[in-house]
Each structure stands twice: as structure tokens, then as C-alpha cells.
Write a structure and sequence with these properties.
It is a multi-pass membrane protein. This protein is mostly helical and about 475 residues long. The protein has one domain. Strands 1-2 form a two-stranded antiparallel ribbon. Helix 12 crosses helix 13.
Length: about 475
Amino acid sequence: MTRSAPRRAFDYIRTRTTSSPARFAVVVFAALVLLFTALLSLPASAADGKRTELADALFTAVSTICVTGLSTVDVATHFSPFGKFLIFIGVNIGGMGVLTLASILGLVISKRLGLRAKLIAASDSNPLRSHGGPVNEGQTVRLGEVGQLLRTVALSTLVIEGALAVLLYPSLVIAGVGPLEALWEAPFYAAMAFTNTGFTPNVGGLQPFADDYLLLTVLMVGVFLGSIGFPVIYTLWKHVWHVRRWSLHAKLTLITTVMLFFAGAAAFLILEYNNPKTFGSLSAWDTTFQAFFLSAMTRSGGFSVVPIGELHGSSLVVGSMLMFVGGGSASTAGGIKVTTLAVLALAVISEAKGRQSVESFGRRIPSDVQRVALSVVAWGATICALATITIAQISQADVSDVLFDVISAFGTVGLSTGLTAELTDPAIYVMAVTIFMGRIGTVTLAAAVAATSRSQLYSLPVERPIVG
């Protein structure tokens, strides 16, 4: 029986978009962005009852689904309660991961996961599964554990955000927020912290709570839990008191995260302690705390107490480095990921010591993981460089401000020097693309493009070029 032209077109599109989990992820993310762009464009989503401009609605939708927190408008004043509720829903969808969420819904409906659903969910928990070929035992989450991981994702999201909201509520009320209004703002802040987004529902952002260290500490804890990644949370849940049974991924993620947290705080403390516009007027204790808070937020949190645009240029460079690294793999954070940095650092150390292989905690890291780590850094640096050049040319703004905001977009952080809100529509679209590419992941993007590439069944002669 001959199929109709629309049917053939539908089958072709379905085959192309679902040929790999990576390509399917790109399509679903894009579809969600378009959906939320339409919803945020509605007059009901705006506080003044007028339709939001396309560029602003699209950028906010991308920033929401990609859990970034950058915005071309003031979220607190521009959007109505309905618009803020859409943003709240969007960041939770984006934070959990669209493939993970789809798998959870399928698990709830059908009570079981088929092989295809497990592969899709597994690719969301580990980008290496986007590649063809066998999956070795070193994968973060084994295929048979996917169902348990999905339950962990859903349960941990609900429990952690709920606990954060309960802890935040008293601080909001004490700070002068009405009890009924705090019932909404507490879950909103909790979701923004755990998903590492950084949108704030109130005018002035965190400035009214600059001296409330309990609230700021709760936000830091939420950002940390969201940034380490669901596979690490799953590992800690299974083997919390048995460190030897932690996966190599969990160990590298936690160690690198803690090291960067303290290193970033020390750098900000040294560089900003005498800046009168940031830390200069604070006491030693306040300066130390704010340095740690800024270090945590530049990793992907996106909240800010001090004005980012007033930081010294040296501090902006440190912040850009931290944002580029980001958080853990399969987390709500962005960037190239801390495990990527850890693998490359271990490779450099092994090369310096003349070792044949890269090893850590009694395990050997295979060469394909090292190549992927190198590819992620190369792709990320290329994306940031091209976006910086393009936006700098369009806006003619200071390159240091452009670079900071571009890396914040790529790392889905949400901190800004103030440049993003002043961009023209063409620059806004470039920034939106940068956010999208940063969130879906450079590995996922490359795998989506190359999903149908053919395997090479032969090898060419070896010749070694001079390197270094």
C-alpha cells in the first residue's frame, strides 16, 4: 500500500529526529523553547497585560528551559504571576532534563521501561552513551539501574526543593515578605537554587537579603546539590557511608567541586577585598562569606549580592574561568563540567610523569574519555569565541563585559555585567543560541550531528607530526 506524501514526510522526520537519543534531545529542547516562547508572549504572561516582544520572549524561554537565569527584561516586574509560574515550571523541566522527565512520565504511565526508553534515559545521565559502540562497565549508571536513577531524580528533586522551600520561608517572612507571598517565593527560590538558574521573583533580587546569611547559605546548599548531578546523588544515596564503593565519577566530581569552591573564594577574597564597590566596605567575616557565596554562584548558581559589573577585571576573568568549568555531568549546572577538567588535569599529570595511562583511585581512564574531554573543551572554547566576536561586533561593547556574559550564557550561569539587558535583537538571538548550545552539551550536539555517520572499516598509515 502506497503511503501518502504527508505520511512519508512524517515518517522521515520521525526517523531523523529519533535516530539517536542525542538528536532527540536537541529536538525536544527546541520544541520546548518554541512552546514557552509562545506562552511567555501571551498578554496574560506580562504584568502590564501587553504582548512581550518576540526577542525578549524567546530569550526568556531559552534561559528558562536551559536553566540559565540571564534575562533581557526584569523578571520580577515584567512578568505577571502567571508568567512567573510558567518560568517556575520551565526551569524544573529543564533542570531535570527533558529526556529524564519523559522517561519518568513513561515509567509512571506504563510501570516499566523498555530498552529504548532505558537507552534514552541513560544518554541523559551520561553523554558518552550518545556515541555508538559498546558501553563499558565504567559508565556512571548501568543500564539496569536506569529505573532506580529515574526514581532518584524525581524523588530528590521533590525532596530537596521542598526542604529548601521550608528553610527559606522563615527568612523571607523575617525579611518583610508577606506570609502568603512567601508561600510562593520560597518554592520559587528553592527551584531556582536547585536548578542553578538564578531568577528572582522580587524587585531588587537578593539585595534585600544581603545580610541574611541563613538564607544565602540555604541557597548555596541548593546550588551545590543541583550542581553535583543526579548520578552523584544516586551514588551517595546508595553508598553514603561507603566511600570505597563510590564511583570514580562521583569522587572526581565531589573533589573537583570542593577544590574549585575554595580556590574561587580565595581568589575573589584576594582580588576584591579592597574594592569599595564590592567587598571594600565589609568586615573581614562579611568579606569572607561573600567571597564564598560569589564562588558558589559563578559555578552555575547565578544569584548575586554584589554588583557583578563593579568587579575588578581580574575578578571577571576568575569568574569567567569558573563559569566555563561549571558543575557536574548530568546536573542542573552548565559549563564543560568538572569531570572534564579533572580528566584533562589527570592526563597532563600522567604525561608529565611519563605514565603510559591515566589513572585515578586505582582505576584507569580510557583514551576515548580523554578524547571526549578534549573535544568538549575545544567545542566550548570555539562556541564562546565565536559568540564573543559576533556580539562584540554587533554591540561595540567592551570585550571583557561581552566575554563574561557570553561565558555566563554558555555555562548557563545567569550572572551578568549588565550588558545582556542592553543588547539589540540580533545580539540577543546570538546569545540565545549560545545558551542553547551550552545547555544541550557540546558532546550531545556533536553526537546529534554525526548520528548517521558511517563507521570506517580500515585504518590509514601512521605518521607523527611535531607537536609543541
